Amino acid sequence: MAHSEELHQAGYRLLNQLNDDILHLPAGMLSSEELIHRCRHSFSSEGDAVIQENLEALCEVLQAYLSGRASEDAVDYYLSQQFNIQAVNICELMNGLAELKSAGRAQERRTPSTTGPYALPKVSVIITTYNRKNFLQQAVQSILRQDYPHKEITVIDDCSSDGTAELMSRSFGDDPRVIFMQNETNQGPGNNRRKALAAHGDGEYILFLDDDDYLIDHSYFSQAVHFHQQHPEIAFVAANVFLEYSKTEQLKPSSLKLGEITPKADYFKNFEQKGYPKPASTLTAIFKREALMKMDILNMNMVNDASIYLRALLIGDAGFIDTLAGVYRIHGNNITFNLSQSFLIENLEEKRLIRNMAIERYGYSKTDMNEWFNHNVYDTISYYLMNSAKSHTDFKSMYSWASDHCPKAYSQLKRQFRTKLMKKQLLRVSFVRTLLNR
């Protein structure tokens, strides 16, 4: 990421002030809470709104570290990427923060005990990729840096034309932990997840990683496996991330704010509603393979993140580790901002299948599930119409599907998007388009 010299200097000034506070106050006189209060006070008069926003985020990251909700890896990453400040240049401060954290008895990170790497359960990582070789290299390396020893990565390339195969051969061809698969034709990320999982996903735990995302906490796999071992009732465990906004070159910490364990029925019925957010992609979600097989993942038509989460929640509870584990890129080319009409309809059909599974296999109320389905249809189509629909035809197709399968959502959509549809209809007239373009 690019850095302004002003932001770099502002970050250094803040960190140096904190270091002075730690060094010059008597032992026991400075708590983590007091340090963060001083941190926020020190830039309260900053005149540049962008710099102030970034310094506020820096305080949030430091607070997360002091309370055990961020690793030193995450802090080092954030400082280098957002402020161009390297950890080696602030060793004294980091040592002081570590002592302050220890004094506050922040929760220690737990890892599974073992007598050797292969005595541990295997974590299989599936990475789908298409024409993103630079992003891909960072994603693969982030997994290889995990301190957890029993892991394997399968990269499946969807017929890229940017030299992805050459990159994989050159950078990872000699690493037995990395398997490379390549399609002769483009098959889409959902099919590729299924294909790679069936071929090589034999680990007890599975991570589906998009090629533009990556992990930064090197101990995250160790923490996640330990969590699974302590909570056998869960289907997956997830964590917090940084959101990387490519256009504004900003990193912002994002927290799910979930409890350690969320009961499956509560999360399933309220998924993506207030208090029950969806984790960012499947970037930090370590799934139990047994749960994926029980939910019939190899026969899914739409293997996207929401569908995987929803099916998994029919099987087991959700776990949450309150730590900043990875980075989710928001760059405008994400799939979620470029949804096709056919993709949306597949997604909706998958939600219909999930509703039926919940009723027929898992005893959910038909009335409750019809209401759940209405809510999901409305939210899914609304998102598409707001972010991806480009023409009058896109609106009509979505309306037609909703009218056939979910009349209640159809009525809600027509009321909300009446004005937007009228504008799309007007733009079909060349005379109006000419006037608007003047």
Global geometry: globular
How would a crystallographer describe the biggest sheet? 10 strands, mixed
In terms of structural class, how would the helical and strand content be classed? alpha/beta
Number of helices: 18
What is the share of helical residues?
A: 40-55%
Mean pLDDT: 90
Strand content: 5-15%
Cα(first) to Cα(last) distance is: 37 Å
Give the strand tally: 10
Structure report:
This protein is of the alpha/beta class and 438 residues long. The chain has 18 helices and ten strands. It has helices at residues 5-24, 32-42, 49-66, 72-83, 91-103, 133-144, 164-172, 189-200, 220-230, 264-270, 289-294, 305-315, 341-360, 366-387, 392-405, 407-416, 418-426, 430-437; strands at 123-129, 151-157, 178-182, 205-210, 214-215, 234-245, 250-254, 261-262, 286-288, 317-330. Strands 1, 2, 3, 4, 5, 6, 7, 8, 9 and 10 form a ten-stranded mixed beta sheet that branches. Helix 1 (5-24) packs across helix 5, helix 12 (305-315) runs parallel beside helix 13 and helix 14 packs parallel to helix 16.
